[in-house]
């Protein structure tokens, strides 16, 4: 696993990968800026008007709970774009990864596994759908853990473990679906859940590093291509040399 991570890191700055890396970083920066500003505006609205609206909807019995929630949201809104950038980064990288999955995987497979059958590119709609589902699930899990972050340090650990599970799950399935039907790829991930989660810890650590985490889609995808190859075992379907025509 460590060898796979080192190979992914070293290949990130290779000439073949450099164009994808810059495109990935540029798209991530645009998305993170737009969504972070949107999140800050949403939190600011809730801290001022949303509490009153929800109390009218739920009833006065919820006043104390909503007051506490409003206080939490006020702190989050005060942190503004910085908070949004940290909070949304795993979700953003999930979405960006779905756009570059095949570009990255093709380069890794050509360089490290030239004798094996190359993977088949995922349909664009399917790759995007997987990225959106993971991004939304990431935001949902993080929202559930948000109060723990503000009241106890355990919340940061929950964030980290959630990122490991969610990102490991997505990147592995994207790599596996180049060679298997979606259901078979998901079943393979479940059968190797402990290994995939452990690999996800590497990606969660990477996405936790400011600035560097903009390259998470490249690292995560390259890393999981190697992990899928290792878990698949030996591959008998080697490319046959072209026969000479007499």
From TrEMBL:
It is found in: Membrane. Pfam families: EI24. Keywords: Membrane, Transmembrane, Transmembrane helix. It comes from Bradyrhizobium forestalis. Its main location: membrane. The chain crosses the membrane at residues 20-48, 68-89, 139-167, 196-225. The keyword Cell inner membrane does not apply. InterPro entries: CysZ/EI24. This is Cysteine biosynthesis protein CysZ. It is a multi-pass membrane protein.
């Amino acid at each position: 696993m460590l060898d796979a991570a080192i190979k992914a890191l070293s290949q990130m700055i290779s000439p073949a990968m450099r164009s994808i890396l810059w495109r990935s970083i540029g798209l991530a920066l645009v998305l993170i800026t737009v969504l972070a500003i949107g999140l800050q505006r949403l939190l600011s609205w809730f801290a001022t008007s949303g509490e009153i609206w929800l109390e009218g909807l739920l009833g006065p019995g919820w006043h104390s709970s909503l007051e506490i929630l409003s206080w939490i949201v006020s702190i989050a809104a005060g942190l503004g774009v910085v908070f949004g950038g940290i909070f949304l980064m795993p979700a953003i990288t999930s979405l960006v990864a779905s756009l570059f999955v095949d570009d990255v995987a093709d380069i890794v497979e050509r360089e490290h596994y030239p004798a094996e059958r190359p993977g088949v590119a995922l349909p664009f709609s399917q790759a995007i759908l997987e990225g959106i589902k993971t991004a939304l699930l990431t935001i949902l899990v993080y929202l559930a853990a948000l109060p723990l972050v503000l009241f106890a340090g355990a919340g940061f650990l929950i964030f980290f473990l959630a990122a490991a599970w969610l990102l490991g799950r997505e990147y592995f399935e994207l790599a596996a679906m180049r060679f298997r039907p979606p259901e078979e790829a998901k079943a393979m991930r479940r059968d190797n859940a402990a290994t995939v989660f452990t690999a996800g810890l590497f990606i969660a650590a990477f996405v936790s590093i400011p600035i560097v985490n903009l390259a998470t889609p490249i690292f995560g995808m390259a890393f999981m291509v190697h992990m899928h190859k290792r878990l698949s075992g030996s591959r008998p379907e080697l490319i046959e040399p072209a026969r000479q025509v007499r």
